[in-house]
């Protein structure tokens, strides 16, 4: 082999890598678009297009009585203690935000003070302007004291929506100086004993058996089976949906009506990790509720063309249209609300 | 005119291929094709997830699933661009095949499709072929024996470890081996800039080729008769290395992803510390797991420097010393049980040791690395 051939091999690979750099850092070469509209004749239209050859899905969800706002507030405050280390949570924040962005979720990070202000604002107008995501495994003491009179519970009572991950829901109260544990959170949130909510174990618990309502939202392809902080739903008397998996009597993903009001609590029974963040983002993006039913589902493969369709709806009901592209890893999704 | 025809013929790869070489190449390719249904979907699924990240217009590290330095990631970006045009499924989630696992974790549950396996085996096979061809060329040039050169080609291309790495595990260690071979060959041809640039790419692809840098240093010193020419050539080598490293890392640096790109090193170091609970020599000897290697690095580096030094103190051909010192450096490091694909970079050096250096005993580690 002569010198020239060596250089040709090297330069050839350098050119491929340069192309890769341009594709991944200098341009946004992939285009995905969806839109949806009311036709005015009792149907909703939609269109999907992509410049990739990808699978897509269209799911129309009857959300029942709970109307989930678009805006998502993510609580994150390093001045307050958390159930997990702030180093972990900082990294986690990036992962979750990256996933929420591909689903087009309108999110905002807020600290404890800002969150209190926003909750009080909602309470004063008796309306929900946002939903709330807790990843810290603990709730700041200015929002929650384990009673139904605390600002967070008042907000839930009037119809707020809370997503929870990374610990025992409602158990840990955080302050700037540390964590305290409270009792009676199970009764407060779900009307069940505290012992029906798992305290966690040294090792993560992954379930293999489908839970009660697994098939109800099956077309959304939500796969979540971490039951480490799962809930035993047997004695829940409020309306709930358990769409994950179950092990040792604990359900991994439970959407339940707040026991003392109109709001909804979505409990992910594990920790956020790189691999579970896409599922969590999908649940948040699709705006599913404890009262949800899929009324229309369609899918196929996009071949660099536009797919259009119409869905007949009952105009007296509230719907969410969730459209996604990419399988088994979703690369794009958008949600259209018809409340 | 005859001269032009001759020159043209010289530059044709297939004109140089003798029948034996062609048969070895075909056998190797057939074996790789036959193994396509048995691909280890776990590692391959990371390329799917990273590709999905690209398709959602995220950078290499934004989807948090690429755990290496960028060179192969850039190649993945190009492969994804091509794959996104093809009408094939990348795979399916087979939850019924796993139990007690995290179902949300795609690598645990995914079974990659045959079309995906076939598509991604193409570049990996190309890396293997080029590396084998480099071994062949070095041996042919140095020994003038086509038989030995064929054997060298076969020792790489038909190595069970190489086949396993690129056709079952879907790992890209051959790319790192290829750039390391270009480094060695370029040094033999006094192309110091290219050698430096290639060593940077090899190291940034999978870190381990940096182990031969002391051998490279002594080789340049031994080969050059004056201090002036030694310093000049070392400067050219370093310039190539730095330029290449900047070329690779610049987008990552500008995007503020340097920390994430180094996760391969930092996570291994963390695992190492956690696995040992500090430096516990007895635990290390009784349970020499791959994730503890960073604890014994100072000792291994000392052994590498010592053996390289002793090799270059001996009499003989500098090129052979470079091959042997590189081999010793790499295999010394892998005395500690490595993760199974890491020793891929040792295979071309073992092939060179057997057929160029002429030491057939090196077939023993070649065989042992199968396991």
Describe the overall structure.
- The complex is a heterodimer of chains A (339) and B (371).
- Chain A has helices at residues 3-26, 86-102, 112-125, 151-157, 185-190, 277-286; strands at residues 32-38, 43-50, 53-62, 72-75, 107-110, 131-134, 139-140, 161-164, 172-174, 179-181, 209-210, 240-242, 245-247, 250-251, 253-257, 264-268, 293-303, 307-312, 319-325, 332-338.
- Chain A is an alpha/beta fold and 339 residues long.
- Chain A has 3 domains: 1-30; 32-64 and 292-339, Sandwich (Immunoglobulin-like), CATH 2.60.40; 69-288, Rossmann fold (3-Layer(aba) Sandwich), CATH 3.40.50.
- In chain A, strands 5-4-6-8-16-15-12 form a 7-stranded mixed β-sheet.
- The N and C termini of chain A lie far apart (70 Å).
- In chain A, 53% of the residues are buried.
- By secondary structure, chain B is mostly helical.
- Chain B contains 20 helices and 2 strands.
- The chains are: A alpha/beta (339), B mainly alpha (371).
- The interface between A and B is large, with 56 and 68 residues.
């Amino acid at each position: 082999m002569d010198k020239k051939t060596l250089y040709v091999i090297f330069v050839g690979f350098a050119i491929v890598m340069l192309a890769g750099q341009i594709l991944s850092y200098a341009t946004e070469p992939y285009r995905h678009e969806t839109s949806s509209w009311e036709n005015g004749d009792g149907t909703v239209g939609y269109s999907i297009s992509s410049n990739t050859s990808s699978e897509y899905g269209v799911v129309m969800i009857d959300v029942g009585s709970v109307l989930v706002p678009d805006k998502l507030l993510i609580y994150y405050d390093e001045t307050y203690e958390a159930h997990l280390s702030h180093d972990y949570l900082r990294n986690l924040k990036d992962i979750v935000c990256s996933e929420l962005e591909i689903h087009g979720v309108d999110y905002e990070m807020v600290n404890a003070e800002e969150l209190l202000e926003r909750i009080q604002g909602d309470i004063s107008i008796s309306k929900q302007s946002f939903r709330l995501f807790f990843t810290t495994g603990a709730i700041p003491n200015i929002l929650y004291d384990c009673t139904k009179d605390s600002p967070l519970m008042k907000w839930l009572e009037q119809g707020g929506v809370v997503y929870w991950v990374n610990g025992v829901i409602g158990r840990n109260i955080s302050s700037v100086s540390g964590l305290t544990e409270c009792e009676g959170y199970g009764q407060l949130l779900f009307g069940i004993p505290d012992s029906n909510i798992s305290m966690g174990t040294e090792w993560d618990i992954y379930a293999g058996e489908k839970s009660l309502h697994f098939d109800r939202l099956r077309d959304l392809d939500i796969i979540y089976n971490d039951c480490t902080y799962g809930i035993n739903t047997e004695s829940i008397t409020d309306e709930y949906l358990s769409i994950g998996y179950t092990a040792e009597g604990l359900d991994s993903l439970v959407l339940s009506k707040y026991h003392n009001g109109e709001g909804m609590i979505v409990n992910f029974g594990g920790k956020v990790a790189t691999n579970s963040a896409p599922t969590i983002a999908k649940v948040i993006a699709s705006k599913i509720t404890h009262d949800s039913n899929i009324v229309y589902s369609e899918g196929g493969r996009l071949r660099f063309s536009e797919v259009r369709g119409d869905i007949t709806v009952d105009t007296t009901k509230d719907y969410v249209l969730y459209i996604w592209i990419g399988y088994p890893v979703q690369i794009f999704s958008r949600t259209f609300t018809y409340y | 005119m005859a001269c032009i025809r001759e020159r043209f013929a010289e530059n044709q790869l297939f004109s140089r291929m003798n029948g034996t070489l062609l048969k070895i190449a075909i056998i190797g390719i057939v074996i790789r094709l036959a193994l396509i249904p048995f691909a280890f979907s776990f590692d391959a699924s990371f390329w799917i997830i990273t590709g999905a990240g690209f398709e959602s217009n995220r950078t290499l590290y934004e989807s948090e699933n690429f755990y290496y330095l960028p060179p192969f990631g850039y190649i993945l970006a190009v492969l994804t661009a091509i794959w996104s045009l093809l009408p094939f499924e990348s795979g399916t989630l087979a939850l019924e095949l796993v139990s007690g696992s995290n179902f949300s974790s795609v690598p645990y549950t995914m079974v990659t499709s045959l079309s995906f396996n076939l598509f991604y085996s193409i570049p990996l096979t190309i890396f293997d072929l080029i590396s084998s061809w480099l071994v062949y060329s070095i041996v042919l040039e140095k020994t003038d024996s086509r038989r030995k050169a064929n054997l060298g080609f076969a020792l790489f291309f038909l190595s069970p470890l190489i086949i396993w790495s690129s056709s079952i595990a879907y790992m890209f260690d051959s790319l790192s081996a290829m750039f390391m071979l270009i480094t060695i060959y370029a040094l033999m041809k006094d192309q110091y800039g290219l050698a430096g640039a290639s060593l940077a790419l090899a190291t940034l692809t999978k870190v381990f080729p940096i182990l031969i840098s002391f051998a490279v240093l002594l080789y340049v010193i031994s080969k050059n008769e004056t201090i002036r020419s030694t310093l000049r050539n070392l400067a050219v080598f370093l310039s190539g290395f730095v330029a290449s490293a900047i070329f690779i890392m610049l987008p990552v640096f500008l995007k503020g992803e340097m920390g994430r790109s180094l996760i391969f090193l930092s996570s291994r170091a963390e695992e190492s510390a956690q696995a040992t609970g500090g430096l516990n020599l007895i635990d290390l000897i009784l349970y020499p797991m791959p994730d503890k290697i960073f604890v014994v690095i100072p000792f291994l580096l000392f052994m590498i420097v010592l053996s390289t030094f002793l090799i270059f103190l001996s009499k003989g051909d500098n090129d052979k010393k470079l091959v042997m010192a590189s081999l010793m450096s790499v295999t010394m490091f892998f005395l500690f049980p490595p993760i199974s694909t890491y020793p891929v970079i040792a295979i071309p050096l073992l092939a060179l040791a057997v057929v160029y250096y002429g030491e057939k005993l090196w077939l023993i580690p070649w065989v042992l690395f199968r396991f």
